[in-house]
Inverse folding.
């Protein structure tokens, strides 16, 4: 999905946010959280491109290391077109439930496949981010069933590192403990409101003219 606008005869790409749904559960808690964030984005006039990882057929990283030489992944699967979308997006959002104190398996597979972009950035010294400005803002949305103080630490750290790989910067996060069965997120209206608000704020940020 690529929208563009003509200004003085010059075509200008409109920013979009790549919203990556990382739960294996259909209409699970992080889906709801991400949907609310997307509603905020759209209310702010910025398009979301939704990617449901559970619907894609893609392999985890297989350490072929073609990316070291070519800056691109040798695997050809449903992850392949996402590299361009990650690079072109004005901002990124990743939603994942906590599983064994980290990301879900499918979200982690997505993150690991971003190693190809890490190689592009750090081994070939190429710009990964194709959106205007510096590293693009990135949002992390998560829930977990338990309430330990360190529940989100591992996932947040992974998120920070993948942001660096894809030339993004962690901007904001919404992390909600004590959420387990599908739909329990609705018992946390404050978190849902915050996700919506972040969407609107991010839209405002992306619509600011870049100098
Ligand atoms: C395989 C698996 C591992 C999980 N590990 C954790 C965990 O380490 N800590 C925790 O608090 N919750 C854990 N949970 C609970 C989920 O984080 C929780 O059910 C969450 O609401 C699921 O979000 P979703 O509906 O977006 O998938 C785990 C759930 C599953 C299925």
């Amino acid at each position: 999905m690529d929208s563009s606008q003509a200004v003085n005869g010059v075509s200008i790409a409109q920013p979009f946010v790549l919203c990556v749904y990382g739960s294996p559960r259909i209409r699970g808690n992080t889906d709801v959280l991400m949907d609310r964030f997307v509603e905020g984005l759209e209310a702010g006039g910025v398009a979301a491109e939704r990617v449901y990882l559970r619907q894609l057929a893609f392999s985890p990283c297989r350490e072929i290391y073609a990316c070291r030489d070519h800056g691109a992944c040798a695997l050809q699967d449903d992850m392949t077109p996402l590299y361009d979308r990650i690079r072109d997006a004005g901002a990124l959002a990743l939603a994942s439930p906590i599983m064994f104190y980290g990301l879900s398996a499918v979200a982690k597979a997505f993150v690991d496949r971003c190693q190809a972009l890490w190689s592009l950035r750090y081994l070939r010294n190429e710009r990964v981010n194709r959106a205007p400005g510096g590293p693009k803002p990135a949002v992390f949305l998560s829930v977990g069933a338990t309430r330990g103080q360190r529940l989100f630490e591992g996932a947040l750290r992974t998120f920070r590192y993948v942001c660096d790989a894809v030339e993004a910067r962690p901007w904001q996060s919404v992390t909600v403990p004590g959420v387990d069965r599908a739909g329990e997120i609705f018992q946390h209206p404050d978190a849902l409101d915050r996700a919506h608000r972040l969407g609107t704020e991010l839209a405002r940020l992306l619509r600011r003219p870049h100098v």
Summary: The chain has one domain: 18-206. The two ends are 25 Å apart (CA to CA).
